[in-house]
Amino acid sequence: METSHFLLPLATVVLGWVLAGGSPGPATLTISGTAMAQGRRAAVVLALGVLSGSALWGLVAALGFAAIMRANVWMFEVIRYAGAVYLFYLAVKSLRAAWRGQARRAPPAADGVLFVKGLLLHLTNPKAVLAWGAIYAIALAPGAPAAAVWQLYGLLICVSAMVFVGYALLFSVAVIGRAYARTRRGFELAFGLLFGAASLKILTLRLAW
Asked: Backbone dihedral region of 25: left (phi > 0), alpha (psi from -120 to 50 degrees) or beta?
């Protein structure tokens, strides 16, 4: 990869991307919760859905559509409200599970449902496309060729895959699953409160253009 096309060392770019993607948020919370509740396969499938959503936003930013969206604020507003509603739905679902306890635990979801859940979780995040646009802006030198953009895109998608699938594998470890089973209601309550806070944060988000 030609380093002259980049403003920052690639190691710095990758580290920043890992910290941003791996920090606690709706995607990582959902992946970890699914891993503990439904096991490794379910969590990996959901993580692949999240990864696909990130890949789509990365394409949008790389192709320049992010600028079009910034020029048409209503597009971001639609995504923002959809994201807030979806996170509120997840919050209610987790709080209901905490209230009901283990006796009425829902059956494992189908792979297709889990994949779409992860996809929607990322596509309804209005900050995701801004994150991709920002990383291109700070990492790529002015006049960098299209090849450099796609090289960076491929690198960051691989990093994202390691982060999201890594969460799925880590939290599906048997000892963590057993801990979840013992304290499931506490986990669901925490997830519900965090999803609710994320919904409120997105709803009150003020994007700078």
From this structure: beta
